[in-house]
From TrEMBL:
Family matches, as SMART domains: DBR1 (SM01124)
Predominant place of localization: nucleus
Biased composition (Acidic residues): 396-406, 432-443
Sequence ranges assigned to domain Lariat debranching enzyme C-terminal in this UniProt record: 235-380
Composition bias type Polar residues, residue spans: 416-428
Molecular function GO terms recorded: metal ion binding; RNA lariat debranching enzyme activity
Gene: Dbr1
Listed GO biological process terms: mRNA splicing, via spliceosome
Ranges of compositional bias, category Basic and acidic residues: 486-506
Cofactor(s) demanded: Fe(2+); Mn(2+); Zn(2+)
Keyword annotations: Hydrolase, Iron, Manganese, Metal-binding, mRNA processing, Nucleus, Zinc
Region (Disordered): 387-462, 474-539
Name of the molecule in the record: DBR1 enzyme
Protein location: Nucleus
Amino acid sequence: MKVAVAGCCHGALDKMYETLELLQRRHNVRPDLLLCCGDFQAVRNEADLRCMAVPAKYRHMQTFYRYYSGEKKAPVLTVFIGGNHEASNHLQELPYGGWVAPNIYYLGYAGVVRFRGVRIGGISGIFKSHDYRKGHFECPPYNQQTIRSAYHVRNIEVFKLKQLKRPIDIFMSHDWPRSIYHYGNKKQLLKMKSFFRQEVESNTLGSPAASELLQHLKPTYWFSAHLHVKFAAFMQHQTNSKEELPKATKFLALDKCLPHRDFLQIIDIEHDPNAGDSLEYDAEWIAVLKATNSLVNVTQSSWNMPENNGLHAKWDYSATEEAIKEVLEELNHNLKIPCNFTLTAACYDPSKPQKHVEPVHTINPQTTEFCAQFGLTDINDRIQQAKEEGSVRGEYEEEEEEEEMDSTGSAEEPSEYNTDNSGLSSINPDEIMLDEEGGDEDLSTCSVDPSPDHPPDFSASFSDIRIMPDSMAVSSDDAMDSTNEELEKSGVSKQVEEKSLNERPLKRIGGNENGNSGIKKIKRRNQAIYAAEDEDKTE
């Protein structure tokens, strides 16, 4: 089947789906599935905008609300993960995944589903070591800290995914797995993005948690976004025994959804021709969720997941064949995910702006139904209970180690990742874009202009869309510098250009060049990544 993969969508659903339709008209290529690697921005209304961690001037309604309201419907089944620029209050309603609109499915904090026999997994958010060992304690209305920590990856999600034993076909993360750049055309990457050099050379660019998952899961494909540059790599995994067959992962990072950007890729993936066309639960993943349910934590306490170090009575939470069979029997062998999308918030009305509406903490009926069906803890319900009991507060307190939580986790253990990359300029640009840069942006200010009803002018062409060749042989390091060029010249590549829309380029970030040289460098890096102009020429 044909799978379309998109980078950072940034709420531009109309543009993304129009590009797919253009591909079908011009080249008779129709994807069966669309995957989006984060920064989807499922913004329903002005309250959602206030829960998105971007400066106020970048808070635009975009077009998702039209799909949420039912005015439009996604023309292709769309599955996405969260990034670091999301309506966190909306996605938080669905910690285990669910429909954000008809035909648009969110994988949750972490998740695995099946489509036509293809096993698809993903993890939402980006890595920040100082939040990695905390629970999911945040809830709206967020403050200046929790509006960002809400989308930071937690160790419990990585732990759950590491319990999987069966092969994964496709995996998605928003930020790149650390070290993946050593398995592709690193020279070309640094030519396009020279400001990555320090982190690449020190091997600190990307997420160590994602890298750990890559080594464990060894999926056939791994897709990422976040850094707004297209990059391909091929990683040959080491085998654990002579009997184990060699495995390799084809990695692809996509650019953001903007004119002149290569933000879509079409890939042919083997599937089960006898499987149905419905999105399905994954029985092993459900069994893992049930097994790890006792580990759910909704506090700011830092703790490590159980491991075989003599401190835990149990450390293996992988699903047995019996547990997987029980899940299948509970579902009567019908794994189809119910189409139970429900409106849980008012939809944006361009004729009746609500600029001062406050976000509220909502429990989504989809999550309630899912937890009841499989006997799981509703994380949002637990947060609300904890708030009522006074044990969880929205304020960030001083970092401190808490008492040992229970027999399954310990706060005395050191973090498995003792290097905090949050200060590095090319790792987590969302942190740099906010208080550290400019400082005068009010995150509570809501701006919805321009709206889709008065869109900005477009003066550039749509991105190219290419079909990936079956083989992506990329050397480790720089031995083969022509990989990206080969992809460009591939005989099966398709190019689609649309020149009928005009767009005004967005303003660059941080125009002030005065002050501290370190801040100046950070601002230049953010300009290169986040400005809508095509400034890929390195400074």
